Amino acid sequence: MNARLNTKTELEALLAANGIDTAVWGTGTTKSVDNLWHEVQRGESVIRQDPLRRVLSGVVQVIIRRQGLLLLDAEQILLNGQKRVRNIPPSEKMHPHETYLEAAIRCLQEELSIPRENICILEETHQEVHESRYSWSFPGLLSVYPVHKVEALVSGLPAYDFWTLEHADSSDDTVGRHYWVWSRQHASVF
Fold first, then answer.
1. CA distances from 12 to 15, 159, 161 (A)
2. How far apart are CA 129 and CA 165, in angstroms?
3. CATH classification at residue 91
4. What is the four-CA torsion angle of 40, 42, 89, 116, rounded to 10 degrees?
5. Considering the domain boundaries, does residue 17 fall inside one?
6. Is residue 108 a contact partner of residue 153, using CB atoms and an 8 Å limit?
7. Domain total for the chain?
8. d(CA 88, CA 121)
9. Which domain holds residue 53?
10. 8 Å CB contact between 148 and 61
11. Residues 111-141 pLDDT 10s
C-alpha cells in the first residue's frame, strides 16, 4: 500500500515512526529528506508501507563493451566534494512514464555527453530484474529497484579511462563528475 504523503513533514514523521534515523541523511555521500521528498513529488519513487520501503519507478543500466572490457562508472565526485565509489555500468533512475530506451539514451547523454547519433541500443538484450536492498543514498530505508539492463553500441568514447561532467536535467542531482574505467571485472547491479 502506498503511503499517503502530502508534505515533507508527513514523510519525516513516517520515517521516524518506522525507526529510520534521518539525522545522518544529507551528510557525506548521502542524500537528504528534501531529496527523497522531491523524488516522490516527481514520481520517480513511491513510499510503500508494511514494510516501509521506497519503490523506484525503475532504473536503467547500460552495458557498453569494447574488446573484452566493460565500461564502469568507477567513482563519482559529488557537488559537495565527497567521493562515492560505484563500479557499476552507466545507470540512471527512470522518469515517470519513461521507457527503458528513453532512459538509456538520456543516461548516456547526461553522464557521458554522447550525442544521440552515436548511440545504438540493442533492444534484443533487454532484461528486467528486481533488486531490494538498503539504499546507499538514504541509509536505513529499504529500496526496491526494478532494473532494466540493456546493451548499447556507442561510438566516440575514449579508449582509456576518463572523466566526464554530469549534465543532468534536475537541480536535485548531487553528482558533479564521473570517473569511467574500462574493466575486465564483472560489474554489480545498480
1. 5, 46, 41
2. 29
3. 3.90.79
4. 170
5. yes
6. no
7. 1
8. 18
9. 8-183
10. yes
11. 999 999 999 999 999 999 999 999 889 999 9
